[in-house]
Amino acid sequence: MADRPNILIVFTSWSGNTRALAEAIAEGAKGAGNGNVDVTVKRARDTKRSDIESASAVAFGSPTYYSYMSGELKALFDIALPFKNSFYRKPAVAFATGEGGQLKCIQSIEGILELFEVSFVQRSDILSAGLAVQGRPDEGAIRQAKAIGRKLGDAGVAYACSMGRKNIIAGKT
Ligand SMILES: Cc1cc2nc3c(=O)[nH]c(=O)nc-3n(C[C@H](O)[C@H](O)[C@H](O)COP(=O)(O)O)c2cc1C
């Protein structure tokens, strides 16, 4: 675990829609902990096991490809099973863009995060699509993404504090 809480935002994007959400989440997260947080935005293909293990909170986003997440993000999850413990109770959120099928995409990401037993700061449900956006994110969607980023950042700070306390009790620091 890094000294400062680290908020990790992982995404895939080819034409920029999902990247815009990732960047807005990052901007929101930077305001957490009075700014005493590190925020990292990474493409799924560049994300390593150590990035996830050292993160205090995580966000995963993808464009909808054939009613599912991108292959790139799925490939990351496919190698994550051996270190699924590093997701346990970690604050997390999913985000997606699409041309109508984005709910299926966000649900596919949330399904895996649920299996890894993260602590969702928000998730889609029957009443709300969560951060599943159709087309290019407009001002409202960007505002929503920033607010979610702040929530994720705050939860990441709390998570890092609780892990720090555990380490002190276990005599690890
Ligand atoms: C190969 C491919 C498959 C797609 N399949 C779907 C789909 O099943 N449902 C949907 O709503 N949009 C689909 N789309 C549209 C993209 O999800 C959408 O344009 C997305 O916002 C692009 O994100 P990006 O700008 O971050 O790359 C597909 C696009 C591509 C390139």
From TrEMBL:
Domain Flavodoxin-like as annotated: residue spans: 7-153
Native species: Methanocella paludicola (strain DSM 17711 / JCM 13418 / NBRC 101707 / SANAE)
UniProt xrefs under Pfam families: Flavodoxin_1
Superkingdom classification of source: Archaea
InterPro entries: Flavodoxin/NO_synth, Flavodoxin_CS, Flavoprotein-like_sf
Lineage of the organism: Archaea, Methanobacteriati, Methanobacteriota, Stenosarchaea group, Methanomicrobia
Gene Ontology terms, MF aspect: electron transfer activity; FMN binding
Protein name: Flavodoxin
